[in-house]
Amino acid sequence: MGVSPRILDLKKYDFPEGSPLMLLREAYFRAIPEVCIERPELVTKFHVESNLLNQETISILDKARVYRKVLENRKSVVWHNQAYQRGTDPYPDPRPFFFDDWSPFAGSTTSKFKGVLLYPELVGLMLWPELHGLPKRAHNPYQITTPDIEKLNFEIFPHWMNRSILEIARVRSYAQHPEAYHQSSEELKLMQLLVLFLTSKPLCISHTIPDFSRAIRFGLRGVINEAEQNMAAADTPAKREFYAAIIEVLEGIVAYSRNLAITAELLAPMQTISEKKRRLHEIAERYRRVPEHPATGFKDALTTIWVCWTALNLENPNVGFSLGRLDQVLYPLYRQDVDGGHLHPTDALELLCFFWLKIGDHVPMMPEAAEQLFGGTGANQAITIGGIDSQGNDSVNDVTYLILRATELMKLRDPNLNARYFPGINSEDYLRRLCEVNINTGATPAIHNDKAVILALQDKGDSLAHARDYGIVGCVEPVSAGRTYAHCAALLVNVAAVLELALFNGRMRHTGSRLLTIETGHHGGFQTFEQFRDAYRTQLEWVADRAVRLNNLLGEVHQDFYPTPILSSLFEGPMDKGSDVIQGGAKINSSGVSIIALADTADSLNVIRELCFNPAPDRRIPLSTMMEAISANFAGFDDLYARTKKVPKYGNDNPGANENAQWLVTTLDAAFRGKNNYRGGKYRVGYWTMTIHAGLSAVTGALPNGRKDGENFASGITPVSGVATHLTSALNSAAMLPSRALSSGVALNIKFAPEQDEKAMLDHFTPLIKGYFAEDKPDPGGIEIQFNIMDHETFLDAMAHPENYPYLLVRVSGYTAYFRDLSPQMQKEIMERTEYDLSSGASHSYHIDPES
Amino acid sequence: MNLRDDILERAFSGATDEFLELLLKIMGLGFAISNNPLNPVPALDGYQKHIETFNGRYLFQAQEGVATSVIFHRGEMNVLDDPIDDWDLKVTFKDNEALWKFLLSVKHDAMDAIFKNDVDTEGNLNYLFKFGFMVRDLCQRLGVSSLA
Known about the structure:
heterodimer; B: alpha+beta; 5-stranded mixed beta sheet
């Protein structure tokens, strides 16, 4: 697929300050999120009216009727004109401000300009104790009004106290053991420790990519007609009910779109500016046509996606819910419009920028208590560009470049841009442009090696055509777009905690002598390193088994109480099978596990092998001494501490040191890949840690690799900071991990210092990625890489004066975030990452004093 | 600092071994005063509405064994010095400071308390969230600014 030369010129195209787009962007950054109670209020009202909260299960048709009513009754806001900004001393309360909204896209995910969505069915009630304090939170304040607090407290939350997903699962988990009434299951108790594993099902499933192509091509009316035909031909009541549910929700989306059109028509005569009047009439005309009917142009297609997106977010929490390969979905209508003279590329660029602001119009609900683990996260709505098509052809097109420029101009946290690159098929100019956008934004896009990703997906059973058509979910997780119901972040497992279980015979230091898992041998009994590693494997398999059991239990509760007709209507598979995605209706089903603390654990195994099981007796120290040392945080063990630092580690490009990392990755893949999920799919493993590695490291004791109490874990598959003193050795070690076992994605975080000579920097940047992605048969090369390009002094200044850096974009371990919004521990982790000089590959490490 | 402020400070600061006892007494007083037609504390108007239709049974148990039970039923709040069996939520805590951090701190202390195994919960966590709101609402009404 070729790229028009004039598209390449757009990389220097700017929108003037003071233009409607840039003014709206300014308002966007100024606005703090406002808690929106519209969804919880309507959802609660219609659940109560239909007596659904007293039922043992909620059918998909009942759920669909609720969503239809919500869509029909929600406020149709065409343009916003008011938001709230942070308060400042001596007036800490948020203050309202006003602005002009000229967006071509009407409607919003919430009733607010930038809203916080609440799902009382899930973990919305966690916000309950904090409602009064939300506007004054030091980190990530939310505006909320007193009447809304009253409604949540008296009219909404009480209905869900016994009907949230986690509570239903908890009751189910002990239902088979009446003697243990009130007791949580073993799995729930383990999760409540928070340090071993977490499952995100109480919070969401999401983490998938809908299929917008049929809505664009046939319109929702076309899908409704298909559902009616399927319903008439259905051979079971369950299928008939499914198709009836699809019709309900799609009629609801059409009604919402019509309501927006009506509102736009009502607003038009009130405008004094003729251009605004014209725009409102155009919006009214367009929203009457799409998404109900097929999109006839580029703007129509974006409108269809946008309206469907608001509906999808009504049903599914906005966590890792992703938009897929937008350049592929949008290109045919873009080409048609441009060739027909109906659209200029700069207009398409402006539409994409307005669309970006819409995508970022909401944030996930984050209680103060969860800030330590997840602070600063956005909704992680990934967009994927580039790569190859399902036939293996270069699929980079003009829209790919427009999306890159829109990202560069907007510099938003959401959407989270991910670029695919197939070595040898995608052009080097394209790769160079990806590097250039990284330099200009400092943090995006993440770059994925198509060759390695496609092989990894095939290894898990995806067909070649489906694997080639992958998109990125949430942070960095690849799934076949529009047809894989993946829930990539179903489980998060801390493998450093598993190491502690192996060392302390099924116990952890902070819980004392209580046996948490199983006994796999007293430390004095291990005669060889292999025996110790076997104990580790046994602990890991035991934990994996319990984690999967809990995830499946929660999945079954979702199946019974949280049917998902809206998502099912926009997905490949359910319309053919007559079955909800939550019941296994998708073409491909999987669940994902993300691993925390890979490098620290691999390095600890290296140190244990080298120091505690060294073949030379005079160089050997007892494992018990190592355990004493880590329990004392190495106080009084200075010599041992120094020796831990000298042991070769993952990141040194040392085959022996890499072996434990490779063993861990392979063992984790083996532990999970054979397990069945509740939808008939299998588990896949990935290594992207978001901000959780920083949160967990703050409460994890010292480890054998020389990591002391509270020091940060390394992120994703990144070597521990300071270990890889040269860029090449870091990349070589990461590239040696078996990519087939990394099918749920990885984050390799590399930090560069900006250089004065940008051209020289680019000249080094592109070959670096080509080298990392280079095939070394049978290994297809590194799988993913992402960057922070910012000098240390700027980070220091941003930490000291966050008010001066409201939009400083950084890559955490996976998604992009605003540095200011991160927890201090996560800010420290980013600052302490090894910084490399791109030209020479030399490194510099920083240590941030926790007291500073 | 007058007596009222002193009591509030002691109750909500966590710097006392009597934290839970004081907290529950003030909550109970808050509900009683709010329910009184001659309510002398206007800030407490409507506070009783929190428990008008709320039934909930809580057990707070120190790790060394001392237990306090709180029962909300038909608009009444009752505190018992004995453990109840049929609780909706059981909170086991290392000491009063840990419990204070878990219930009231506005920082990350609630998560820290769980991470450090200083506090453990059993039962329906939504009852914890409800209780937390009632406590913080009381702070808000009484002007305990550090927490409100």
